[in-house]
Amino acid sequence: MNGRDPEREGQRRLALFKAAFREVAEKGFAEVTLDDIARRAGVSKGVTLYYFASKEDLFRRLFGWLVDSIHARMREAVETPADPVEKLQALVAITFPSPSKNRAFFRAFVDFCGLAARRESFREVTARFYEGCREIDGAIVEDGIRRGVFGVRDPASAASTVRAIFDGLMMQWLAETDPEVTFSAYRERCERELLRYLEAGSDRATKSRREGSDPLRGSDPIQSAAP
């Protein structure tokens, strides 16, 4: 390990993060070993321990890396759209990219949340994740309130509820017996319920009621998609 190469070390850390993520998504934190991660990353266990003090240290840093990556993708997704509804739709799109990606991430995320309930170091990362999400969600809500598009009154409370809708529907989808079939329906329902909640009492919703139309009214897409 003489003559440290920062670029090579960065590549190895990234390879170990990706390997650890795949392992925890498939097996769960309790079942994964450093040997499993090293094997998948194509390095020795000794190399893994050179970069990370322990399995817990590796997963805590992995969780932090995932949080930073998610926040970056969220900010990028909402940067271009000018309309708050379009920003929200962009968030839904990156939150529900595909069944395989969602399954892998939320399996790992559920494990990390379980660790956060028991270990302070993981709890700090979880708090940072939700703080960043509420900041991004809250900015969209505030913009929607200013434009008269959203009818909620408390941006901070609304941002927390927005995140609860995202997480709640994703957890329900993860428990489906055939998640591949219902994935699109859950994504549509997420957008639908977010807009229903945020637009209630807004100028736009009032106008729609007066005109006798409701763009969010309709049958439950999840029930329609069920086999």
What does this structure look like?
There is one protein chain. With 227 residues, this protein is mainly alpha-helical. It has two domains: 44 residues, Arc Repressor Mutant, subunit A; 152 residues, Tetracycline Repressor, domain 2 (Orthogonal Bundle). It contains eleven helices and no strands. The termini are far apart. The C terminus is likely disordered.
For the report, how would you describe the main beta sheet?
Answer: none
Q: What number of structural domains do the residues give?
A: 2
By CATH's scheme, which homologous superfamily of the largest domain applies?
Answer: Tetracycline Repressor, domain 2
Specify the overall morphology.
elongated
CATH structural architecture of the largest domain? Orthogonal Bundle
CATH fold-level name of the largest domain: Tetracycline Repressor, domain 2
N- and C-termini, Cα separation:
56 Å
Average pLDDT figure = 89
Low-pLDDT stretches are 221-227
Number of strands: 0
Report the order of strands and helices. Answer: HHHHHHHHHHH
Evaluate the radius of gyration.
Answer: 20 Å
How does the helix and strand content classify structurally?
mainly alpha
* Beta-strand content bin: under 5%
Number of helical segments with 4 or more residues: 11
Helical fraction: over 70%
CATH C-level of the largest domain:
Mainly Alpha
Keywords:
Tetracycline Repressor, domain 2, 227 residues, disordered C terminus, mainly alpha, Arc Repressor Mutant, subunit A, 2 domains, 11 helices, elongated, 0% strand
